[in-house]
Write the structure tokens for this entry.
Amino acid sequence: MATRIVIATVLAACAVVPCAAQAAITGQPDDQGRTITFDVRAPGADVAGYARVLRAAVHGDEIDDVTVRVVPRGSIRARCRDSRAVGCYSRGPRGSVITIPARAARDVQATLLHEYGHHIDSMVRTPRWWSARRIAWRLRSGQVATDYSKGWSRSVGEVFAEDYVALHIRSASAIRWLPRPSSSVLRALRRDITEAPRDPQPVPSAPGAAPGDPASPAGPAPRYP
């Protein structure tokens, strides 16, 4: 995963919707009083809508540890450093960042959930999902890899992120070679998130860049069981 976190400067002159290139930090509570942090760098950001998506998503205390950065639509590919990106996730020593374009929440729902899936993957152990998806066997048989050496759709981290999307909405999966997750896989994933204690994966000391990714060019290394 490439570490590309820029710490926002909060200027008192800006409101929730930032002025020009300035940034505004705002927080929205989830149903348990945890804070969902937004770094708004574009006018027209549907912060309330993004918060509704994440508030309704299966999550735990790890939601306190990520910032959703909202940037102008036309800058998302440059921000994510990929010509096909529609969103991205990065994690480093200073925290985790999801970057999405300033569009209506309904239009970026799948992207936001996919990138939040990467955050879950980097922060929570998921042994039930790992077993239900037969990841150990798929690794041994060469179907998937723990990096992007076999391509984006064969990365365990991307399979996980797409399964996380499927836990919440029915949308076309970008993982076309693999059957959609069964109800048992989704139940396993839900239990991993809601029942397991938080146990974050260490940040790699020398992360490698991922290849082009239409949904998340900077996904983290997958979470091992």
Residues 127-195 form one domain. The CA atoms of residues 45 and 102 lie 5 Å apart. The longest strand covers residues 95-101.
